[in-house]
Design goal:
Domain Ferritin-like diiron: 1-145
Order of helices and strands: HHHHHH
InterPro entries: Ferritin (IPR001519), Ferritin-like (IPR012347), Ferritin-like_diiron (IPR009040), Ferritin-like_SF (IPR009078), Ferritin_DPS_dom (IPR008331), Ferritin_prok (IPR041719)
Number of strands: 0
Radius of gyration: 18 Å
Number of domains: 1
Helix content: over 70%
Shape: elongated
CATH architecture: Up-down Bundle
Strand content: under 5%
Family: Belongs to the ferritin family. Prokaryotic subfamily.
Structural class: mainly alpha
Largest sheet: none
CATH topology: Ferritin
Subcellular location: Cytoplasm
Function: Iron-storage protein.
């Protein structure tokens, strides 16, 4: 069983992850309305990933014998200035989530809750990957720009990230015989 403070902190993180999912889904809708199908698909997939993050925590809290609580989630913004604004906000949001995960790790360490500490290590690694991903997108936006055909190339580049991610996931799930590994 989790301590009351740890259960409360994890329940807050459940809602944080749900907000992340809603935020990225709303950003996906905005991109779709602007004809940015690549960015829309990328953010839609990312919304699903954030929901999976929420479900993992929800399951963990339940498995530990505590009540997982899905609370009220604020509505995200619906309008953005540009695709650059969208990805600046995603990067800032992921940095916020990283701070929240770090606070959970700190609490688990203080409470000597080693099972939860171990569980949270996946989130620590995941947040590092998320920040790198969104920083990479921002770097590409900066290099290519969003003026003229730049927006077209940015949208294609973001869509390409989905394909790369799918190929990497597929490669990791293949049995050794299929990958040629000995």
């Amino acid at each position: 069983m989790l301590s009351e403070s740890m259960a409360e902190a994890l329940n807050k993180q459940i809602n944080c992850e749900m907000y992340s999912s809603n935020l990225y889904l709303q950003m996906s809708c905005w991109c779709a309305s602007k004809g940015l199908e690549g960015a829309a698909a990328f953010l839609d997939e990312h919304a699903d990933e954030e929901r999976m993050h929420m479900r993992k925590i929800l399951t963990y809290v339940s498995e530990k014998g505590n009540l997982a609580i899905v609370g009220e989630v604020d509505s995200p913004a619906t309008q953005f200035k540009s695709i650059k604004d969208v990805f600046e906000q995603t990067f800032e949001h992921e940095q916020l989530v990283t701070r929240k995960v770090n606070n959970l790790v700190h609490l688990a360490t203080q409470e000597q809750d080693y099972a939860t500490l171990q569980f949270l290590q996946w989130y620590v690694s995941e947040q590092h990957q998320e920040e790198v991903l969104f920083k990479t997108i921002l770097d590409k936006i900066e290099m290519i720009g969003i003026e003229g055909q730049g927006i077209f190339f940015i949208d294609q580049e973001i869509e390409r990230l989905i394909t790369q991610k799918e190929q990497a996931a597929k490669a990791m799930s293949m049995p050794e015989a299929e990958t040629g590994a000995a």
